[in-house]
Design brief:
The protein is mainly alpha-helical. The protein contains seven helices and two strands.
Length: 153
Amino acid sequence: MTIVFFTLVASALGWLFTEDFFSGLSTGGGVFLTWAVTREIDPAHQSSAIIAAFFSLFHLLFYTESIHLLMLAWILTLLRAVNGITGKKLTLVDILGVFALTVFLSFLNENSLYLIVLGLALTRLFVLQIKKSGGSNMWSDHVRFNHCPINFF
């Protein structure tokens, strides 16, 4: 509940500093996504996320260039997929959604680095899942999708 109040305060401060309503919303969204990414990296400590959000507020207020909220959302979804903190197994829809966002960001920014990072993240998912299964016969397990981290149905 603290972060909701802090996000609203950040939006109001962003609006007051820039005198633009949408810049204020962008500032609040940036603070919230910073908190969410920090919580994803360090879920055991709430204080580290609040401190990161506090520092990002000052950065966002005084650095008034455009904030890439889609990139922050993309990082958050990749972290959630790789860390598996949500407790749900990844579905094909999740992977396709992250892939679609990755392709969109790649074309928008004219940079294929997003695709490389997605490939590395998916490779890590498969390698970790194979290690969990014991890795006895990696190729037959992978071909049969017995230990695939993605639910296809």
